[in-house]
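Q: I'm building a small set of examples for a reading group on sequence design. Run inverse folding on the following structure and report the sequence directly after it, with nothing in between.
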């Protein structure tokens, strides 16, 4: 059942420069160690400042860690269940951290969802309407999550939600950012990337209105998507689990340091901004007519140039990329996106900047 169908007739009208950052005297090859507690202990910078709009000048007090938004993405499920039983690893002084299984029925069934995608229904129409008894399970669950961790856009919403996902695509460690204007998250992602180095960690920016979707984590003031792969659906890999675990730990460390009043100098962050979602070639009846070309398979984040192979038909014909400039593909051949008509998404590299940041009342 599609979530949209449950709302038909119920909606009201009207709803609807690239160099590594290195401030003078603040960061050198020998001093990068301050990023992680294991590597260094101090960091000096200019006076912290954060836009009042994003509400991050005051300490962050409530953080949720979501696993099982999709029930067959098992790294987050296993970690959250572990932390529900023993939360010592994710607790931080002065911070309330709540591990939470977002879609328990889908987790029990081992499927992405029961009726519809939970990670697409956190919009005003689904959250604001009284649902009939036969509403899709995920719509009902979205309203429960909204009550527990929201309200979305409200002052009482959770400060941060870390939403843990796996992908079958070769995305490595990926952080998902929903706006280019959140200084706190730009600083946090910069910190996490530095902690994980030399392992790469990519930032996927999904701020284009036409391509943005209503995520589970968007209930929080500062939503953080965590995507780690490749990992098949319904499978656990120790290396992928470890990478996700490290990302969560570094994110919580950053929040604790921010709450303690640590100053974070102005920084820049390279991100990949989504531009277009590309479907598979299809027959007249809608069936897929070509597969991802071997030259593109597993090449997430790598340059894709005009004329490069992207699809291969069953009779051996290569279909080239028909764009007019170099892009960077992501979620290449993602299993969960077959139903969404997405073979891959194209992105462009963009550099974001964040002003210096600290908490005004540690």
């Amino acid at each position: 059942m599609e979530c949209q169908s449950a709302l038909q007739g119920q909606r009201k009208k009207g709803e609807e420069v690239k160099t590594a950052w290195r401030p003078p005297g603040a960061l050198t090859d020998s001093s990068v160690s301050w990023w992680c507690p294991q590597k260094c202990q101090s960091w000096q910078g200019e006076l912290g400042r954060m836009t009042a709009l994003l509400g991050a000048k005051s300490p962050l007090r409530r953080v949720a860690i979501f696993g099982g938004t999709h029930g067959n993405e098992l790294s987050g499920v296993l970690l959250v269940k572990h932390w529900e039983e023993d939360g010592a690893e994710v607790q931080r002084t002065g911070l309330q951290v709540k591990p939470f299984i977002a879609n328990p029925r889908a987790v029990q069934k081992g499927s992405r969802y029961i009726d519809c995608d939970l990670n697409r229904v956190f919009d005003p129409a689904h959250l604001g309407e009284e649902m009939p008894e036969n509403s899709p399970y995920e719509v009902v669950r979205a309203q429960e999550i909204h009550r527990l961790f929201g309200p979305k856009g409200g002052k009482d919403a959770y400060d941060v939600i870390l939403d843990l996902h796996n992908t079958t695509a070769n995305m490595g460690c990926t952080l998902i950012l929903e706006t280019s204007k959140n200084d706190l998250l730009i600083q946090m992602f910069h910190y996490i990337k530095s902690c994980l180095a030399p392992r790469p960690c990519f930032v996927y920016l999904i701020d284009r209105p036409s391509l943005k979707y209503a995520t589970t984590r968007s209930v929080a003031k500062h939503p953080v998507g965590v995507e780690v792969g490749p990992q098949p659906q319904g499978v656990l890999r120790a290396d992928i689990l470890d990478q996700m675990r490290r990302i969560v730990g570094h994110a919580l460390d950053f929040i604790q340091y921010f709450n303690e009043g640590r100053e974070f100098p102005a920084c820049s962050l390279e991100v990949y901004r989504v531009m277009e979602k590309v479907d598979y070639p299809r027959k007249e009846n809608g069936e897929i007519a070509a597969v991802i070309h071997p030259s593109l398979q597993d090449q997430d984040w790598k340059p894709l140039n005009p004329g490069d192979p992207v699809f291969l038909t069953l009779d051996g014909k290569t279909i080239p990329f028909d764009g007019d400039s170099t892009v960077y593909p992501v979620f290449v051949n993602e299993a969960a996106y077959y139903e969404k008509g997405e073979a891959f998404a194209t992105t462009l590299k963009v550099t974001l900047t964040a002003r210096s940041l600290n908490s005004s009342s540690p």
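Helices lie at 74-85, 104-109, 124-128, 137-149, 183-196, 238-259.
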